[in-house]
Amino acid sequence: MKNIFITGITGLLGGNLAIDLLQKGYRVKAILRNKNAYKGITHPNLELIQGNLNDDLTPHLLGIDVFVHTAAETSQNLMKYTAYRTINFEATKHLFLNSVECGVKKFIFVSTANTVGFGSLKNPGDENSPIREPFTKSLYAKSKLEAENYLLSQQDKMNIIVIHPTFMLGAYDNKPSSGKIILFGLRKKLLFFPPGGKNFVHVKDVSQGIINSIELRVKDNNYLIANENLTYKAFFTKLNSIAGQKPVLIKIPKTILISLGYLGDFLRYCNIKTSISSTNMKTLCINNYYSNEKSKKKLNLHYAKIDTAILDAVTFFKKQSNG
């Protein structure tokens, strides 16, 4: 039986990954700041360790085969690059070095598709595409890319795999994180949407991609886990159909979003915390689309329709709201 150590178990991906690993017979250790924050399943093969990412984890890593690092600082309102770098780079480096010291065989780093260059519907971005604007100015993306570059420079010490998930949806989004887009679209009479689009993927497919990268003898280091490229209008149309609602869809003009973004930049310059920025608004106005061909061929992934991910998320949030 392989022994897996994971971070981010209270998050959307980490929670689903833990469930999937346990159901497949793996023994799982996970670190979290507060054990009471864990809302997942209990299992005899699951050990929860209360602590922080910067703790010395070597006592817990002896006998671990694979370290999967899903935890990250994803908040969009942080003002300084150091706020992202502390978690997304420095903690990643610390965890990797702890893993090296304990003889861990494989380190899987969950990054983001934002560090990979997006493309169009006809020519979607792939693993060979370099990061593009506006993500080159995203503090979050820059911190994840710095961590990627460090890890890939250390391949002589351990087998390194970088996973690049696109926008994940599904159940067990307890915080919530990316599921906020579902909550935003539910029970509205008027639904405003931006002019761009993005790639959506079921969180279970990302989890399966990680598991396959554990089980298969893969030679490459980078894998986009991506599925359907959709405009925001097409996404919300799907959501409305699945949720059985009929709001009026209203497109927000690009000029309004960009102007709002520059207002956010001014507020941030004045040290007023806000998630609004020109970078974030520009990402809503582009079609950042990706290919999943490599993951299908090399990781043997078979993707679920995004409708299933939306339904799972809607069902989960409705159950939560009903108590």
From TrEMBL:
GO terms for cellular component: cytoplasm. It comes from the Bacteria. This is Dihydroflavonol 4-reductase. SUPFAM superfamilies: NAD(P)-binding Rossmann-fold domains (SSF51735). It holds the Pfam family Epimerase. InterPro entries: Epimerase_deHydtase, NAD(P)-bd_dom_sf, NAD(P)-dependent_oxidoreduct. GO terms for molecular function: aldehyde dehydrogenase (NAD+) activity. Residues 4-216 form the NAD-dependent epimerase/dehydratase domain.
